[in-house]
Amino acid sequence: MPPPLPDRPERAKRQPQRVVDSVAGRIQGGLLKPGERVPSEPELMRELGVSRSVVREAMSRLQAGGMVETRQGVGTFVLAPPAARPLLGVAGQDLQLRQVFSMLELRVSVESDAASLAASRRSDAHLAAMREALDAFDAHRRAGAGTAEDDFRFHALIAAATGNEYFEEVMGCLGGATIRCHGSAAQVALGAGPAGGPRFGEPRTSLEAGKAVAQAEHEAIYEAIHRGDPAAARAAMFMHLNNSRERLRRLAE
């Protein structure tokens, strides 16, 4: 026996979305290009079998989504997509300290929440991978080697443990850009350090001290996540990234 048809109020709610899907599909598929006019209200009414109010509601939704604009007395036109922001492309760039400061400021908020969620959602596999990253960081630190990749992996694993792919995407961008950045002062502040030891003229003691502090802060984050304590994990990550920013500020003076 077929399922009963939805009642009229439910169908009425869905009609504007049907128009939205139809017009948006044409825009995304290239049938309607930026600057071109969207079919008029009467045309959409005839084509889709809906009322004028339904079409107007759909156009309002498309305007709110930034896909079209309505010009009074002229019609509705397709808007060009917003220019791509550079954020997701910064991971492979050389960054100025100002940019690293700004990204660390954003990371404080994003990764504190990520650590809190990870404490609630992490699996044994996540914990084992985090422990492995921390042990590798410590081994490379003691050997005087670069720790940037271990540092990044630890933070990326926390993002993965949230179960939210968008935390992973943001961490891959911001963390990859700041942890792997080429500015030596930033690397000391973040406790990462360049692969192969300090650059010419850099005191090894400053690199070693930065890495030792970062290791201790990472351990505090890990222990809170291991205990399943979201509040402690959030606080530990907040402290770690704020301390990183403060270390960077002092080195940049």
UniProtKB/TrEMBL annotation:
Keywords: DNA-binding, Transcription, Transcription regulation. SMART domains: FCD, HTH_GNTR. InterPro entries: GntR_C (IPR011711), TF_FadR/GntR_C (IPR008920), Tscrpt_reg_HTH_GntR (IPR000524), WH-like_DNA-bd_sf (IPR036388), WH_DNA-bd_sf (IPR036390). Residues 1-20 are annotated as: Disordered. PROSITE patterns: HTH_GNTR. One of its GO terms (molecular function) is DNA binding. Residues 13-81 form the HTH gntR-type domain. PANTHER family: GNTR FAMILY REGULATORY PROTEIN, TRANSCRIPTIONAL REGULATOR, GNTR FAMILY. This is FadR/GntR family transcriptional regulator. It comes from Aquincola agrisoli.
